[in-house]
Sequence to fold (287 residues):
Amino acid sequence: MNNKQKAALASIVAGFSLTTFKFIVGILTASLGIISEALHSLLDFVAAIITYISVSISDKPADQDHNYGHGKVENLSAFLESILLFVTSIWIIYEAVTKLMSGNALVEITIWSYVVVIISIVIDFTRSRKLLKEAKRNNSQALEADAIHFSTDILSSGCVLLGLIFANLGYHKADSIAAICVALIILYIAYGMSKKAVDVLLDKVPENVTGKVEELLNSRKEVIKYHDLKIRAAGANIFIKVNVHFLSELDLQTTHQLCDSIEAEIMKAIPNSDVTVHAEPDDACDN
Fold:
């Protein structure tokens, strides 16, 4: 089991523990804020399972049916997680508004109401840092999405904590208002996650990569010109193809060495990249 899988598995354990604890306290105290947090954690738990499965599949090497590997499984996983967040947010807003309009906003505040929220903040902070570290190390969008889930829990738990404090002071509507704040935070984060995942699934060029490749190609004196630069991402990997023109009098071995050198330079500058440089003589017609 690699570090990505270990991080995802730890998230499953954390998600299950937090979900169970929050549901018990939320139901006993009739706090919509805590119940909304429990649903958020339930999604984190489901998302952690999806993440574990996706990182396990994405690490499989390319095969006859998947020439570019299985990396996009991570992007699909991140998109599915964002959909789950959207659905949950809408439900929370509906329940909170219904409760406010009905006037039945009474909440029973106990010491456990505060305990579950504070413990949640501590666990979420620890898990989000660990996941984000592994996400950056492995360029994993699935782990990054999981880290975002736990990060949003910190913000939403803060809203719920404020709601509990105000409810304890007699303003019980604050609990439902806190639940709405949680939902809005989740909606905002989910939008960013879904957009990023869709961009990769639709082969949008990763930000700043084109500029780096063009800068490297322009810095090579042997390159007379280049064209048909194509860049796409799949999971943690970035695939780059480009046609490069060299002097026509260069022999095949020299040309091959230049291509290898350019590919190595680009791969060094852009981690997890797979680069293919196609050589053409300078007197060849552009495609």
The two ends are 46 Å apart (CA to CA).
